Amino acid sequence: QSAIFNFQSLLTVILLLICTCAYIRSLAPSLLDKNKSGLLGIFWKCARIGERKSPYVAVCCVVMAFSILFVQ
User: Fold this and answer.
1) What is the pTM of this model?
2) Which residues cross the membrane (predicted)?
């Protein structure tokens, strides 16, 4: 199944997108800061979520990793 129809895969993709955008913004802030609106603004918003909610995102990543490794 694709990630759209499987809820756990969709959550995994969203978590990876948030973590990747936050990491890219930490390396090159100007890359994401110039696109705050429009379609590419999604990446800026994901980076902001990753920065501001980083403890919660980290816990979600650990829970998702545990779920993928040991539950499936």
Assistant:
1) 0.82
2) 6-24, 54-71
